[in-house]
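Appendix B. Raw example, untouched.
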Amino acid sequence: MIEFHPVTKHIGAEVTGVDLRKPLSPEEVATLREGWLRHLVLFFRDQHIDDEQHLQFALNFGTLNHPAFKKDSGSPIHILDQTSPKGEGGDEWHSDNTFEPTPPMGSLLRCVQLPSVGGDTCWANTYLAYETLSPSIQRLCDELTAVHDITMSMKKAISKGHPFDLAEIQAKWPPIERPVVRVHAETGRKALFVNRASTTRLVGLSDRENEALLPLLIDHIRSPEYQCRLNWRPGTLAFWDNRPTQHYAVADYTERRRMHRVTINAFPEHADKERFTA
């Protein structure tokens, strides 16, 4: 029997009673989806699966998303293989690819190889980040949009030696406006939708107002009571909802860390109905 064991009060649960090497029944998929929507990120321990099993598990919940900068072309698996991650971009609180016309719905990240110590990942509940703002700030945020721009992330990647063509990438993904408060398509709950990696300014506010309000909103999700932290082990898989969460990869290691990821978009029946572009 599938069971969910919360790791904090507000976000994260370990799942038992399922073997990801085997095909899931419709009832098991429905149970896992309900738990995922409730806990926002699910952790599966001791699941020593291969890439094909990883992919088939992911496709129970959405359609394949092709990451914007996947280096291992031709494979649906995005391999994250790092030894010096500091400044690579994962070590900032973010939701994945909010600069895209439709950001991915979720990600399934599997641990293959770890450093001797370090390499944890944190997640934050952005429903709670919105709900704990004062009512006056909530009303203001409800009316605002923000610019999401790939430029900041790309400049960091280029500075770390990645051979990206900044002008080409900027032409492919120009800045885009997004609501500051996102309404989840399946739960109807509101979530704060700005992040340090991609959000550059609040539309319609002066520079001085931006300097005051945007950092406040971005930093608000850093409160520990909104978060959980995963200490990885080989064979652990994390499955998170990218819509009401942000995550942070702790860059505290200098040995090899190898992770395999599948990223998914929503099925049409679960597609976002909120206004993505202003």
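End of appendix B.
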